[in-house]
Amino acid sequence: MKVGIIPCNNGLGHITRSVELANFLVKRFNVTLFLSKNTKNISINKKVSVTKISSNFKLTKNYTYNTNWYKKIKIKKLHKIDLLISDNLPEAIFLKKNTILYANFFWHEILNRKGDLIRNLNKEIIERDIKILSNYLFGNILSLRENIYKIGFIGEFKNQNIIKKKGILISLGSSRVGYNKNFRISLKVLQNPEYDKYTFYVDKNLFQKKKKLPKNIKVANFSDKMFEDIKVAIIKPGFGTIQDCLKRGIAINSYLQTYNKEFLNNARILKKEKIGDYFFNINNAIRNAVNKFNDNKRIMKIQKICKELKWEGEKNFQKYVLKEIINL
Predict the structure, then answer these.
(1) Is residue 140 domain-shared with residue 35, that is, in the same domain?
(2) Residues 179 and 125 in one domain
(3) How far apart are the first and last CA of the chain?
(4) In what order do the strands lie in the sheet with 83-87?
(5) Are residue 179 and residue 239 in the same domain, yes or no?
(6) Could you tell me if 129 and 186 lie in one domain?
(7) Is 169 strand, coil or helix?
(8) What is d(CA 46, CA 52) in angstroms, rounded to the nearest whole number?
(9) CATH number for the domain including 232?
């Protein structure tokens, strides 16, 4: 059985999640990852084949995106694939008859896009009874309810000594969806003497090039080693970064600069589950994160909540893949 996985390349969340899924499924199937040509620094199992393709997603300044990306994919690359899994790219159903969609939201719903392609897309999903696998907590697809199947978070929870951690992460991700192009965090806030005893790991995209960093600020590289030192995170609440934090029991402060359906929905869920708070002012988000950092009782409660979430969703995923195989 040959399985292909094609993730949306907007940000790193979809790609990281798809790689983690591929690394699990390759234990039982022949797996090929279809990644955009500029994808790098991802830990992929040597048994997973990688095929590079042209970029499949591009969000413009006017918040439109190319729904015809799939037409640039050479079909012959998919001939040997029995089942195609698409992470957040519903248009992939036009590439392969046997397809499973993996998504918590659809871009055309977030951006309120309509038209013939969207209508045809929904019609195809219904008529072909295409399964849409979605996270049981954060899934927020507004249509096609009968096609949606809930699964847990991909990966295992990592037990770590959260109290001894010394870092605070500040990240807005590699994507600029919903944020001003020239946004930069004010270093004056972090350079306040009262913050000297904290270590801030800050997304490199938030700094001006060649800017000398204060001693208490490090550039975030999002490695396992970095996350081992993170106690609280201030993030743009995309699902990928949320999952990275949850699997390590990290408290989350969501920063929402503008209205975005996906981010606001995620931030509200985190607050409802008593895992995090959300802010529209970055300075308030930082102050709250520092206060939370020093509240070990609350930090430990959040870690416990995270541990009790449903993990190892890849096992659920594999069951649905096996069901599709039977129907081939």
Answers:
(1) yes
(2) no
(3) 11
(4) 49-53, 30-36, 2-7, 83-87, 99-102, 132-135, 148-151
(5) yes
(6) no
(7) strand
(8) 16
(9) 3.40.50.2000
Please give the sequence-ordered ranges of beta strands (E in DSSP) within 96-174, or none if there are none: 99-102, 132-135, 148-151, 167-171
pTM for the full predicted model: 0.88
Q: Is 10 within 8 Å of 59 (Cβ atoms)?
A: yes
Strand, coil or helix: 300: helix
Burial class (CB in 10 A: 0-12, 13-18, 19+), 38: exposed
Q: Six-digit token pair at 312?
A: 């190892």
Q: What is the pLDDT of residues 124-182, one digit of tens each?
A: 999 999 999 999 999 988 889 899 999 999 999 999 999 999 999 998 765 554 444 43
Residue 174, classed as helix, strand or coil, is: coil
Instruction: Check residue 214 and report its DSSP letter.
Output: P
Q: Is 120 in the same domain as 186?
A: no
Is-contact 244 227, C-beta < 8 A?
Answer: yes
Domain enclosing residue 272, as ranges: 162-307
Taking residue 181's Cβ as centre, other Cβ atoms within 10 Å add up to 6
**Rounded Cα gap, residues 7 and 240, in angstroms:** 12
Residues 46, 96: one domain? yes
Both 211 and 288 in one domain: the answer is yes
- DSSP three-state, residue 173: coil
Tokens for 202, please give them.
């800050």
